Amino acid sequence: MSTRVSSNSRRPIVVIGSNGQVGYELVRSLSPFGPVCAFEHSRLDITNFDALRATLKTLAPMAIVNAAAFTAVDKAEDEPDLAAAVNGKAPGVLASIAEEFGACFVHYSTDYVFDGSASRPYRESDPVSPANTYGRTKLTGERAVMEIGSAAIILRTCWVYSNRRQNFLTTMRQLAQERTMIRVVEDQIGCPTTARFVAQATAVILAECGFSAPRLREQRGIYHLAAAGQTSWCEFARAIMRYSSACNDVAIEGISTAQYPTPAKRPAYSVLDTSRLRDAFGLYFPDWEVLLKQTLDR
């Protein structure tokens, strides 16, 4: 596939939320295509819209990739206003800024925009009905971006993890050092997806469009991005123990969602159909277990 970059290549690529799982990997994946300006929350608060616009106006980027989000699903139930500002309102502001400066815009959403009642992988055209505050605020953000009409791609991801920061993988490995048995929910099904794969796919999408806003606009819309296959949290945990030599003696006991109540309701089934993204950009989607082995090998 082509990776030619347009004459915009001297303009920087802005990565917002660079200290997060996906943001960290984005800086690495996008650096070969031009200078990357990476912003952690401490350097750029996306809910301070005046400062946001002033900063991006100075940079005049060729692409803005927004990996910043309020991702604490349970905490969002207690802090809905902050979650709404970060996940719901800021993405639309960023899309507007990108449109103003002729920049490509990539934003990330979630499988949690669905209620989990499906029996086959969710397509982008399927009805949305979030079951928790996090999902509702992310859906608001999607709609805000799409209303702008900018050169924007929204990538819905699922069960994102990596070797850094707090996530399911790092939590399981930590618990394995402390316990001989871990109880994990077995009746929620999804697609564990590495942050590195999300970042690499993002780089391919932008490169395929030559980091050109007019070309990206031709493909604008919402796409599903996740690893191939599906599994439960319980089986995901067992795979982590199976492929982690230091964790082989830890037993994983499957429990029901009812046995592990949380403030935010989770969808029982949130597998994503990625065929639209595959057809549009020629992406290959490795099986979730392959990606897990690669991550643990690192």
Strand content: 15-25%
Instruction: Supply Rg.
Output: 19 Å
CATH superfamily: NAD(P)-binding Rossmann-like Domain
Q: Pairing-aware structural class of the strands and helices?
A: alpha/beta
Q: Which regions contain 5 or more consecutive residues with pLDDT less than 50?
A: 1-7
Topology as H/E string?
A: EHEHEHHEHEEHEEEHHEEHEHH
Mean pLDDT: 94
Integer tally of domains: 1
- Main beta sheet: strand number and arrangement? 6 strands, parallel
Can you tell me about this structure?
Helices cover 41% and strands 16% of the residues. By secondary structure, the protein is α/β, with parallel strands linked by helices. It has a single domain, classed as 3-Layer(aba) Sandwich (Rossmann fold), CATH 3.40.50.720. The chain starts with 12 loop residues before the first strand and ends with a helix.
What is the topology?
Blueprint: E1 13-16, H1 21-30, E2 36-39, H2 49-59, E3 63-66, H3 75-78, H4 80-101, E4 104-110, H5 133-148, E5 152-157, E6 160-161, H6 168-178, E7 181-185, E8 189-190, E9 193-194, H7 195-208, H8 213-217, E10 221-224, E11 231-232, H9 233-243, E12 251-255, H10 275-281, H11 288-297
Parallel strand pairs: 1-2, 1-3, 3-4, 4-5, 5-10, 6-9, 7-12
Antiparallel strand pairs: 8-11
Helix pairs in contact: 1-7, 2-4, 4-5, 9-11
Summarize this structure briefly.
The chain is of the alpha/beta class. It has eleven helices and twelve strands.
Please supply descriptive tags for the structure shown above.
11 helices, 12 strands, 298 residues, six-stranded parallel sheet, Rossmann fold, 16% strand, two-stranded parallel sheet, disordered N terminus, alpha/beta
